């Protein structure tokens, strides 16, 4: 979850929980007229993407290095989460790379920068922005809305980096997106050799022309580029393969691209594929091209292969017997679907809700109005408020509307021994209650029958729900996911066992929500919410997934019930998808709706 709002900020409805991801956004970057920092050749540019987090700029990704090119189109696609409600500050910095030394950060290597946000490009320079940001009073430009934004690059102290510009093209990725894995090769490509009179290749060093010996036996160094042709006939670079040296029949490494990037999830969208002969000075020689669609590419699935003639239009016009400049073959195509939370829900996955209530003595005597368990006929206590707020959301995803309700930390009849996982309806064979109202009634009826005691041990209940989830996992279907809501008034006393139980549970279809009730110091509970670091078992084993969300209820005393539910359930859709993706379980086929017998026949 994200950090709390700072002093003077408007408090968010849920300071600990993450904002729901509206979508993911892909950013493509290109530059023009970059400064030339090299003496012998042109600059070798690379783009760094930085994101501001808690006032600090952190590098999150970087592009490939493009050799000797002042007008680079980077193949790297940056993917960022887009939160509508939040200002997400980004910074793009362009540097001149130096071979194996990598990307430097010295002023001499800096080709320019531009600061922006995911939602908008900041063109002004409010207080605190770097001195090389654009000058004030230039307005705002919506990246997401405009899709394509071109802005000047700036050096330090607000100085323009010559005529350098950077272009950011954004595209939202739909939640239904998947990706495709492609494997290409080529056969009998044209041999492109650059000659100068006398059989030498020309190169510059300062102002002197140097003639370098050309290997008589060298062949083309081919690489492949794939472009998507958009509705406005513009071309977007989708992928650039590696260079295969000295080979007219190269086999390129398989690669993966999202269907959104490749074809905007439209099978019939036209694609342009271009084969080049690599040149270290950036002046690549055109070998040939072909056009295709993703629909046509899919013929390569299984044992089949698809091939295209690689055509050079100039040769086709000039040469009477011209056939092609080689053949490009798609050896294999694999489609990997990425499913969304709704895909699983609509496929019939049920959310099974279990509530566990703290009945330790620290809550106070339920007969006393100061007790956290006091039943006020005019107003629900904090336990009931949290239970109803979360349960009413979960019940919409459970067809039978039956919820398991457990208690811990109390002496229970008939022997009044301490139990840490008893059914509050006192039915050991069936701990389920009919709907949220059934849980409320069982809670109210059990209070006079038990003795509040202790300690606050929650590991037994986590393990109990985990055993049921483990049985579900064995079905190898996305049929049931378990949410355990733990309501407690203090820090757990079996922290080591709880950490161990959570690590085990992270491998199962379940999530854990812990709501701290009352005014206790819950600082130590934050360790269970793995947002400040990876939660580990006492033996050092990390959780597979972050499945715990902890929230103190006191932060929602004056908020609506929906604010608490939104906060504690914000991570659940992501956790559901993460689990089933890890297990490679697709959604089940949706079942046809069952007619409601209470409804009459249509008139």
UniProtKB/TrEMBL annotation:
Biological process annotations from GO: cellular response to calcium ion
Cited SUPFAM superfamilies: C2 domain (Calcium/lipid-binding domain, CaLB), vWA-like
Alphabetical list of Pfam families matching this protein: C2, Copine
Coiled-coil regions listed in the entry: none
Domain C2: 6-133, 160-309
Keyword Translocase: no
Keyword terms of this UniProt record: Calcium, Metal-binding, Repeat
PROSITE patterns per the UniProt record, alphabetical: C2, VWFA
Keyword Amino-acid biosynthesis: no
Cellular component terms (Gene Ontology): plasma membrane
Domain spans labelled VWFA: 352-551
Gene Ontology MF terms in the entry: calcium-dependent phospholipid binding; metal ion binding
Gene3D superfamilies xref list: C2 domain
Listed PANTHER family: COPINE, COPINE-7
Record family assignment: Belongs to the copine family.
Name of this chain's protein: CPNE7 protein
Species assigned in the record: Copsychus sechellarum
Organismal lineage: Eukaryota, Metazoa, Chordata, Craniata, Vertebrata
């Amino acid at each position: 979850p994200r950090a709390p709002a700072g002093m003077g900020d408007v408090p968010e409805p849920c300071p600990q929980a993450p904002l729901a991801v509206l979508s993911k956004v892909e950013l493509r970057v290109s530059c023009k007229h970059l400064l030339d920092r090299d003496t012998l050749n042109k600059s070798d540019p690379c783009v760094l993407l930085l994101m501001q987090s808690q006032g600090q700029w952190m590098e999150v990704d970087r592009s490939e290095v493009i050799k000797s090119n002042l007008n680079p189109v980077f193949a790297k696609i940056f993917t960022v989460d887009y939160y509508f409600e939040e200002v997400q500050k980004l910074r793009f910095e362009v540097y001149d790379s130096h071979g194996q030394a990598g990307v430097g950060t010295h002023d001499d290597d800096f080709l320019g920068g531009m600061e922006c946000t995911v939602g908008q490009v900041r063109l002004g320079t409010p207080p605190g922005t770097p001195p090389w940001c654009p000058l004030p009073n230039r307005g705002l430009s919506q990246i997401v809305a405009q899709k394509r934004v071109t802005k000047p690059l700036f050096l330090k102290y607000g100085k323009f980096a010559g005529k350098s510009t950077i272009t950011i093209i954004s595209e939202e990725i739909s939640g239904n997106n998947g990706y495709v894995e492609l494997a290409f090769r080529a056969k009998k490509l044209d041999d492109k050799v650059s000659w100068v009179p006398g059989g030498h290749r020309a190169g510059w060093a300062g102002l002197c022309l140097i003639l370098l010996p050309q290997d008589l036996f060298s062949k083309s160094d081919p690489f492949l580029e794939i472009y998507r042709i958009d509705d406005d006939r513009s071309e977007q670079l989708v992928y650039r393969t590696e260079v295969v040296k000295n080979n007219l029949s190269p086999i390129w490494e398989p690669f993966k691209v999202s269907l959104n990037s490749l074809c905007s999830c439209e099978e019939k969208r036209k694609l342009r594929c271009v084969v080049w002969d690599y040149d270290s000075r950036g002046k690549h020689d055109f070998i040939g091209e072909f056009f295709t669609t993703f629909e046509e590419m899919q013929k390569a699935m299984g044992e089949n292969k698809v091939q295209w003639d690689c055509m050079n239009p100039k040769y086709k016009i000039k040469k009477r017997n011209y056939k092609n400049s080689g053949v490009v073959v798609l050896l294999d195509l694999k489609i990997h679907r990425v499913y969304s939370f709704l895909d699983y829900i609509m496929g019939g996955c049920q959310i099974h809700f279990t509530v566990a209530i703290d009945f330790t003595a620290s809550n106070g005597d339920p007969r006393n109005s100061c007790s956290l368990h006091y039943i006020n006929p005019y107003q629900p206590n904090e336990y009931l408020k949290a239970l109803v707020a979360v349960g009413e959301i979960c019940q919409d995803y459970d067809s039978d509307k039956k919820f398991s309700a457990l208690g811990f930390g109390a002496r229970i009849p008939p022997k009044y021994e301490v139990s840490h996982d008893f059914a509050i309806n006192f039915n050991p064979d069936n701990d389920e209650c009919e709907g949220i109202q059934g849980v409320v009634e069982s809670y109210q009826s059990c209070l006079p029958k038990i003795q509040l005691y202790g300690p606050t041990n929650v590991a037994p209940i986590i393990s109990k729900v985990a055993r049921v989830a483990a049985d579900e996992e064995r079905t190898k279907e996305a049929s049931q996911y378990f949410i355990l809501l733990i309501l407690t008034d203090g820090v757990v006393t079996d922290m080591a066992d709880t950490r161990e139980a959570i690590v085990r549970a992270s491998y199962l279809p379940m999530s854990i929500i812990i709501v701290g009730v009352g005014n206790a110091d819950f600082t130590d509970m934050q360790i269970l919410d793995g947002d400040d670091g990876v939660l580990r078992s006492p033996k050092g084993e990390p959780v597979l997934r972050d499945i715990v969300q902890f929230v103190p209820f006191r932060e929602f005393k004056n908020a609506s019930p929906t604010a608490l539910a939104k906060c504690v359930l914000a991570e659940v859709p992501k956790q559901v998808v993460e689990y089933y993706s890890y297990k490679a379980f697709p959604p089940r086929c949706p079942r046809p709706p069952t007619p409601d017998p209470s409804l009459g026949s249509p008139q």
